[in-house]
Amino acid sequence: MTRRNAAIIGTLALIVAVGGRVVLGTAQPPPARHLRLADGEPSIESLLQKFRQALVTNDKALLRRLRVTEDEYRNLIMPGSVDPGTPSTQYNQQASQYFWGILNGKSIYVEANLLHDFGGKDFTMDSVEYRKGVKKYRDYTAYKQLTLMVKHPGEEPERMRIGSIAEVDGHYKFISYVRE
What we know:
By secondary structure, the chain is an alpha+beta fold.
């Protein structure tokens, strides 16, 4: 057997061993699993109406469910926060847990403040503004840093500043409630 034939046989064996994922002799990573936002709302308007409902009814559990989960944040938002067409960013487990912990902890405090300031009080939302605009990332679209104009019956409108919303495949959830 010549060296060339041995190399070809070796390469074919490698192709079989890694399930056919070889391009120019380099093994390719397995295809990424497609993540979506579980229990996401079908529109921003629907998400904001549930957000209002959670506050008016003092529903802490609903308020929490309107945010991305740890899995969604660590496996979709974090790695997909790059420009379209760019490879996803890879984080080790310790780093992604750390970043989730910071974001989640801050959101929990903001949730408590929102429930303190707006919980149990009826209000309408007159308008929404994205203070930092709308940005398309590789795996999602971010509606960044919301300002809601809210009005309690018989009172002057006031601004409510909250965090950002993610849209993935037509489903919407808050990334966090943290105001920058």
